[in-house]
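A common beginner's mistake is to predict each chain separately and then try to dock the pieces by hand. The better habit, illustrated here, is to supply every component at once so that their relative placement is modeled jointly.
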Amino acid sequence: MSTSQREPNPHFNPHAAVAGWLLPGLGHFILGLRKRGIILAVAICSLWLLGILIGGISVISRTDRTEGSGESRSWWYYGQAMIAPSIAVDMFRNSLKESHADGSGDGSLTYEPSFGRMAEQGTLFTALAGMLNLLAIIDVLYCNPAYRRERDSGQLVLSSSAIAKAATSAAETRA
Amino acid sequence: MITMINLIFALFSQSGSTTLAYRPFIDPLKLDDYWLILLVPLVFAISLTYKTIKTDDLSKLPGQALYLTAQIVVFMILAASALWLLGVLV
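With all components supplied together, the output reads:
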């Protein structure tokens, strides 16, 4: 909302928040805010996929340490994990690493770790996608779906200034 | 424009640069020389998500998202220029 007004009677929607964590935009979609849900899904998933495309799957890692510096990436992982598929990617990457380490794989299922700028960019893209999804989750967690649907369909045409004026005139009438 | 063309060529010429064949989403891209251009899609995605949540009227969304993207990029260039100038002068 671009207004400073709070929307009336916000509901607590934990199921939508969980859905939004599983797939960005799904929380908005299941509450009937389909257009917003699709736009959020495209924007956040594109950013997340672009991050993995740039840096490879090694950018999503809970346990790896940056080469040389000894700096843990775990803080980035908390941001990345705000999108549930990041956890699946980390598990997949771990399975590739373990199959290569114990020799059970055919040798072709390894991955090339990213370093330098590409590692930075990939980590930044995926972590920012996660943080943006957290913003979307918080937005959908406390919202009034009926009010939002009316607003999106154009039935609710009162602007914030009109609402403020109406509230002021009602207060003056009461006084 | 030439940089964008070079970036597209770099995206499609990954296979010869690694020991194994390039596999999208598994292996990293070799775009170290073009990392600054990646700022634009990053900022646009941030702007689009923020405006999708914040805006009342979705018909104005593309314009607002592009305007916010331009604002962020311009202010980052100004900040970088100021820091560069500071580094030169001090």
